[in-house]
Write a structure and sequence with these properties.
Pfam families: Ala_racemase_C (PF00842), Ala_racemase_N (PF01168). With about 350 residues, the protein is α/β, with parallel strands linked by helices. The protein has eleven helices and 20 strands. The strands form four sheets. Strands 3, 4, 5, 6, 7, 8, 9 and 10 form an eight-stranded parallel sheet that branches. A six-stranded antiparallel beta barrel has the order 12-15-18-17-16-19. A two-stranded parallel sheet has the order 2-11. Helix 1 packs across helix 3. The longest helix is centred in the middle third of the chain and has 16 residues. Bound molecules: pyridoxal-5'-phosphate.
Length: about 350
Amino acid sequence: MHGYIAPLRLRLDGDALVSNWRWLARMSGPAACGAAIKANGYGLGAEEVMRRLTHAGCRDFFVSNWGEALALEPLMADGVRLSVLHGVRDEDMAIAVASRAKPVLCAPAQVARWRDAGQKSCDVMIDTGMNRLGLDWRCDAAGILDGLTIETVMSHLASADEEVALNAVQRDRFAQIALGVPAERYSLANSAGICLNADYRFDLTRPGIALYGGVPHAKAAGHIRRVVQPQAQILQRRRLIAGDSIGYNATFTAKQDHEVAILNLGYADGYLRGFSGTGAASVAGVRLPVLGRVSMDLAAIDVSAVPGLSEGDWVDIDYDLPRASAASGLSQYELLTGLGARYDRLWA
Ligand SMILES: *Cc1c(COP(=O)(O)O)cnc(C)c1O
């Protein structure tokens, strides 16, 4: 791939990333503010994200598995902590014991496995009502965990992006657990949880989506800056004559003539078929709607409004996360994590 320039790229705004982390850190009050960088930093590139947020002062990072931890361990500066949210399987033990990262133990069998292996410190996940990962809040967590050195006890909110009773229920259960299980710190809030109120902060927060420009809660609108701007190159220009159709299954038929550009971008790049007929690109703020169905590697846009565009020119893909989510039916999380390996990732 040496010297190869991809026909699609992500423009990534490092200042916006840091500004978002600082806003979340301010909203976290006296609690420390970490960063969830699993899934390759939600698709942006975990190494660059970790480097930039470490420089900004972030000291707690979260990934899902040990493959991710292995790749990021060389970047861990002094005082930086890296937690592996899915804990440890048997297959992970050799790597986990030798690693500077620590597991977030999620099940009694994981606790037993870690205790049998020695006494390096760990984190623990308590399930307070999401019924996904963690020790059940109703079990004797203090008993199960007795003798372990625990850095952070955490839990995860199921519905922090909604005003629902479950939020306070989870928080109260977590506060009760915190009284009984000794640890250095307690952590509950993700991005949306940080926006709820001060009762959810505890000692450490764990934002993900809002770092990367997602708006997790109405309170964050106007504060969270865009980080990701996908751009695609025009592969071919053509003219659609009234009566012509375009793309698979001919879902769009022209009522008048259209100037069309074919882009190097498709559902294999995370630009899923939900954008067919609903998405858009733009050049200098002029909207260029997607015509017909998005293909695996190609999409067509109407460039009648900017007829001077040629093969080789670049266009911005409309990827404002709340708006693109409404257009495509995908969540803001899916929009980011689906961005694949074929983009050049260019940080500014
Ligand atoms: C992914 C994740 C986060 C970050 O959540 P966002 O909604 O992206 O802010 C925090 N905690 C846990 C346990 C997670 O899995």
